[in-house]
Amino acid sequence: MNLERPIAPDPYESLPPVPSFTLESSDLVAGQAMPKEHTFEGENVSPQLSWHGFPEETKSFVVTCFDPDAPTPSGYWHWAIVDLDTAVTFLDRGHGQSDLFLPGAATHVRTDGGEWGWEGANPPAGDRPHRYIFAVHALDVPTLDLPDDVSMAAVSFNALFHTIARATLEVTYQQ
User: Fold this and answer.
1) How far apart are CA 153 and CA 155, in angstroms?
2) What share of the chain has pLDDT > 90, as a percent?
3) Which of 4, 21, 95, 151 has the most CB within a 10 Å radius?
4) 1: Cβ–Cβ under 8 A, 6 or more apart, which residues?
5) Are 122 and 44 in contact (CB under 8 A)?
6) For 86, left (φ over 0), alpha (ψ -120 to 50), or beta?
7) Angstrom distance (rounded) from CA 158 to CA 161
8) What's the pLDDT score for residue 1?
9) Is the pLDDT of residue 87 over 90?
10) What pTM was computed for the model?
11) Rounded to whole angstroms, how far apart are CA atoms 131 and 25?
12) Distance CA 28, CA 15 (A)
């Protein structure tokens, strides 16, 4: 199958601008390839993430990982956590396994593959490198108050109206 197509835009560049802060990882290096252990064909373990420099008025966080290069009209959501308390400024490696590893009221949202936790990179074999954009969204509300079975499109839509700052970290992966 021919997978030639235009390169998708960075989805956050199309949204209203907000201030940024710092997102770091001891497992990922911005602009570099995602280590195989974090991919579907590897150990499928979520990477460590930490963030700082967000606005003082932040009341919660949403953490996501999105692949805009998936051969679909809407990209592919690999991970989402909503309602993270502001006392939480890091996720250890593997905390994406299930809600049991998340503090407080934080919960996972179902990925595009139907998982309730981290779903590692798994681009089609032979396709160009895919970008995986990790984002931490600082919100002005303590919870998005969304139903358990909410879609990532609905999370993104609702978070947009409460995002006061955003940090991103982009890595790539190719099979």
Assistant:
1) 5
2) 98
3) 95
4) none
5) no
6) alpha
7) 6
8) 79
9) yes
10) 0.97
11) 16
12) 25
Question: In this structure, what token pair is assigned to residue 36?
Answer: 């195989």
- Mean pLDDT confidence for 70-95: 97
DSSP tag of 6: P
Q: Find the length of the chain.
A: 175
Rg (CA), the chain: 15
Distance separating alpha carbons of residues 156 and 31, to the nearest angstrom: 24
Q: What CA–CA distance (Å, rounded) separates 41 from 72?
A: 21
Both tokens of 173, joined, read 């992966």
* E-state strands within the chain: 22-24, 49-52, 60-67, 76-84, 90-91, 107-108, 130-139, 163-173
